[in-house]
Structure formats: structure tokens, C-alpha cells
Amino acid sequence: MKVAIIGAGFGGMAAAYDLRKAGYEVTIFEAADFVGGLASGFKEPHWDWTVEKFYHHWFASDKHMLGLIEELGLSDDVIFPRPYTVLLHDGEWYPFDSIIKALLFPGLGFGLNKIRFGLVGLYLRLTNNWKPLEKVTVDEWMRKWAGEEVYQQMWQPLVIGKFGPYYKDVNMAWMWARLKARTTKLGTFKGGFQAFADRFAEILRDQSVEIRLGARVESIKREQDGLSVGGEKFDKVLVTTSPNLMAKLCPELPESFLKGLLELKSMGAVVMALLLKQQLSEKGYYWFNLPKGEGFPFLALVEHTNFVSPEHFDGDHILYAGDYLVPGHEYFSLSNDELLERFAPAFKRINPEFELDWVKKTWVFKTNYAQPVPLVNHSKNIPDIKTPVEGLYFASMSQVYPWDRGTNFAVEIGRKAAKLMQK
Ligand SMILES: Cc1cc2nc3c(=O)[nH]c(=O)nc-3n(C[C@H](O)[C@H](O)[C@H](O)COP(=O)(O)OP(=O)(O)OC[C@H]3O[C@@H](n4cnc5c(N)ncnc54)[C@H](O)[C@@H]3O)c2cc1C
Q1: Residue 213 confidence (pLDDT)
Q2: Ligand 1 centre and the CA of 206: distance in Å?
Q3: Which of 374, 350, 365 lies closest to 290 in space, CA to CA?
Q4: Which of 24, 111, 147, 281 is 20–30 Å from 244 (CA)?
Q5: What is the per-residue pLDDT for 309?
Q6: pLDDT surpassing 90 at residue 137
Q7: How open is the CA angle 40-263-407, to the nearest 5 degrees?
Q8: What is the C-alpha to C-alpha distance for residues 243 and 258, in angstroms, rounded to an integer?
Q9: Rounded to whole angstroms, how far apart are CA atoms 377 and 132?
Q10: What is the rounded CA–CA span in Å between residue 394 and residue 372?
Q11: Can you tell me the distance from the alpha carbon of 1 to that of 20, in angstroms, rounded to the nearest whole number?
Q12: How far is the CA of 12 from the centre of ligand 1 (A)?
């Protein structure tokens, strides 16, 4: 039985692994000339480690990813350093990555607000009943249960930052999933996510999976006894691209399925990675939660080398500044220098000593498909993995709901698709 997989991200590779183990002949078509998809990385010749294009880490609860890594015999290369996540209050940064730190955070005072914040957090961590939560928005639910002040200070900045114009429409199950599935312990792979993706691809190749790089698929057509991918015949095909691309690849899908794919909303992302000759956060903070209202020109500020050692990058420091944006936002069309000009004043707010000459190099990475937007009653919008076209399957970030997208859930859905394809 011949199977084609479109996309060599972690979803596609995980599916290939299981299908090959089950005896299928597997070919992966990957448009880029590297594996790893959205979690891929890059490397300067004199660095020992790669750096992800978009900041990435694992949570200690990422059981699908960590389980796969164990099966592959690579667990010794997973590390969990102890980085600091901080939150801004009155111009000061406060560590905010444990229950104790959250309780000590002065932003909510030490009275009723703190208690409401704690109780809401506890409830969301303990309940498994997410279905009723998808019927309401984060905005409505949090205002009611956490209270206006707690919502505005703690939760609203997060939803605004992630979903911009859609923030009032995002359902509460999304917030539940975030709190449920995340830990304060953060992990990575020795050598970076790209090192892991390359090792995984090597294992797949050793098992006779064919991975074709630079092989963009333009269309998938139904044939009498199978499917044709660029003129080549396969019994089954799994697509792991965005819903939009899936609709373009296979216009033969029924009208209602295509409409469902095209109606799914998502945010894009623009992320600048900077190589600095000095550390930006002298206190060694890794992840800065930046409230939109504080006027930062980006949502995410992440000093990667406060998570992994700068020694892997010849002693230099890696910083990310990025944002989730609607496709077409002006950041998508600015040059690196123009973007740096917008971003640089904000770096001085973290470290007043910062000067532009600290910046040795910049890279800017853009994607239109970075973060699916889950609306109220979203479960009824999720396309089935098995599509109405015989032998055609679809597994993307938009279908891991109620979980938020992440490599852990890419592995889970890839393996789920592989199982369905064997039926
Ligand atoms: C800013 C940002 C931060 C993130 N942070 C984290 C994090 O900290 N931790 C975490 O676990 N996850 C994180 N993620 C999410 C994670 O990157 C994704 O969930 C995961 O990589 C998705 O894997 P996938 O295989 O489903 O899709 P993708 O990685 O998107 O793979 C799809 C592949 O299909 C290929 N493709 C597309 N069209 C075609 C075509 N026509 N022909 C052939 N190939 C094609 C693409 O090139 C790509 O390689 C982050 C994502 C972003 C954008």
C-alpha cells in the first residue's frame, strides 16, 4: 500500500513513522528544503546549536512529543533548563512562573482579587469538563468569574496579544486548554528543535521512508483506484498544511467541506530573531509577558540565551521579538531594518543600556498560519481527519482543538491520522 504525506513538519513525520511501522510504503513531499515545518530552525556556521525561527519550547506535560522521543531512543537529548517568565507591574518585572510567584505578584494586591485569581486558576486546572466552556467567550467568562480587574490585568492582555481583533470572540475552552496542558518547566532538544527534526528524518530514512525536499505539491486528484499527487499514484494521502492550502490542493472536495476549511480563522506571525553581542535582560529573564496596553511594538519578547546557554552561539545572545498579526498587517511588508527601527526603543525599556550597535545580525520570519482562532462552539467547525474524498486525510494545527497548537499536538494528530489510515 502506497501512502503520500504532504508536509515534513512534526505532524507529517509522526504519521510517517507509524505508517511505515505498519508496513506501508511512505513518501513525504515537503515544499521547503528542510524538515521541521513551523518548528524548524537555522544555524550560523560557527554555532554549535540551531535556533528555532519562531521561539519554541516544550512543556513537561507534552506527553505525545516526549513519548515519541522516547520511542526514538532520543530522550537523553531532551533538557529542561529552569528559565524565568516575568510579568510587568508598575514598571517592574516580576517572576510569574509558579503558584508561589503568582501569589506573591503585587499586581493584584493581596485581597479578594488575588483569591478570585487563585480560585479561577485552580478550577480551570482541575476540571476536565471543557465542553460547556466552549459555549462562552473568554471575555464573558473571565469578567464574570475572575472579575473585571483580574480579567483586565491578567487575562485580557493574553487574549488581545494572541488574537488581536478576534479577542472578544475566542472561546473559554481555549483558555482552559492552555492552563490545563502547560507547565512552568520548559524543555528543548540539545542542538535545538531542528537537530531533533533532522535526527527524526534520518531515522525515517533508515526505515525506508522517502522524504522529498523542495517538492511542493500543487494538486491532489481523485483517480479511479487511488489518488494522484503531481501525477504519481498513491492509495492514500495525508495532508498536513493549513486548511487554506488544503482547499487549494484538492478543489474536488465537496463544497460544504471546502467552505468549512475556508471559514476557519487564524492569525499569522512576524518574528524577528536578533543576534546581540550583550545580554539584554541582566537578570536572566527568558520570557517577558508584555501587556498590549503598555505600548510595546510586539507581543512576545523572548531571550533565548536565558533559556539555553550562549556558549552554543559563540558567546553571543539570541533575542526574539514578535507578534501574532492578521495576515496583511504592515509588519509583513516591512524590511528587517524598518522593523528593527520600530522594535529597538522597546529593548531600551528592558535594559536602558541597550544600543543599536549591540545588534550583530537580524533575521525576520513570517507566516500567515501561526495560530488558529477558536470561536464559540468551535468543536462543530473542526474538519474530520478523514475527508469525504476516499483515501484523502487531513491533519493540521486547526484540528488539535480544544488543545492550543503545539508540536506535542502535531505529533498526537499525526499519529491519530496514521491510525485512521490503517482502517
Ligand atoms: C510563533 C510560534 C511559536 C510557537 N511556539 C511553540 C512552542 O513553544 N512549542 C511548541 O511545541 N509549538 C510551538 N508552535 C507551534 C508549532 O510550531 C506547530 O504546532 C507545529 O510545528 C505544527 O506542525 P505541523 O506538522 O502540524 O505543521 P507544519 O510544521 O506547518 O508543517 C507543515 C509542512 O507542510 C509543508 N507544506 C506546505 N504546503 C506544502 C505543499 N503544497 N507541498 C509540500 N509541502 C507543503 C510546509 O513547508 C511545512 O513543512 C509555535 C508556532 C509559532 C508560529
Answers
A1: 98
A2: 23
A3: 350
A4: 24
A5: 97
A6: yes
A7: 25
A8: 9
A9: 9
A10: 15
A11: 10
A12: 10
Looking at ligand 1, which residue's alpha carbon is closest to its atom 29? 37
Going from the C-alpha of 401 to that of each of 8, 247, 377, 418, the distances in angstroms are 21, 19, 11, 18
pLDDT at 110 over 80: no
Which grid cell is 243? 486548511
Q: Tell me the three cell numbers of residue 266.
A: 487564524
**Could you tell me the three cell numbers for 152?**
483586565
Q: How is residue 318 written as a grid cell?
A: 539570541
The closest alpha carbon to 403, from 73, 179, 235, 188, belongs to 179
Q: How many other C-beta atoms lie within 10 A of the C-beta of residue 190?
A: 15
**Which value, in Å, is the radius of gyration of the alpha carbons in the chain?**
22
Tell which atom from ligand 1 comes closest to the C-alpha of 395. 26
Order of all β-strands in the sheet with 317-325: 92-95, 84-89, 285-289, 300-303, 317-325, 266-276, 359-372
Establish how many alpha carbons lie within 13 A of residue 405's alpha carbon, considering only the half-sphere containing its beta carbon. Answer: 22
> pLDDT of 239-276, one tens digit each?
999 999 999 999 999 999 999 999 999 999 999 999 99
Which spans in 76-127 are helix H?
99-104, 112-126
CA of 409 relative to ligand 1 center, distance in Å: 11
- Give the three-class secondary structure for 121: helix
Q: Which of 81-95, 142-156, 319-333 has the highest mean pLDDT?
A: 319-333
Task: Name the residue with the closest Cα to ligand 1, atom 51.
Answer: 370
- Side-chain-facing half-sphere of 321: CA atoms under 13 Å: 21
Specify the residue with its C-alpha closest to ligand 1, atom 15. Answer: 406
Local structure of 394: helix, strand or coil: strand
User: What's the full length of the chain, in residues?
Assistant: 423
| Residue among 153, 176, 18, 166 nearest 89 (CA) | 153
The 10s digit of each residue's pLDDT in 75-89 is 999 999 989 888 888
Tell which residue, 241, 243, 256, 246, has the closest CA to residue 219.
Answer: 246
The DSSP secondary-structure symbol of 321 reads E
Nearest Cα residue to 375 out of 126, 118, 174, 84: 174
Half-sphere exposure of 352 (CA within 13 A, CB side): 1
Better-scored residue on pLDDT, 161 or 292: 161
Strand order in the sheet with 78-79: 58-59, 186-189, 78-79
Q: Which amino acid is at 29?
A: F
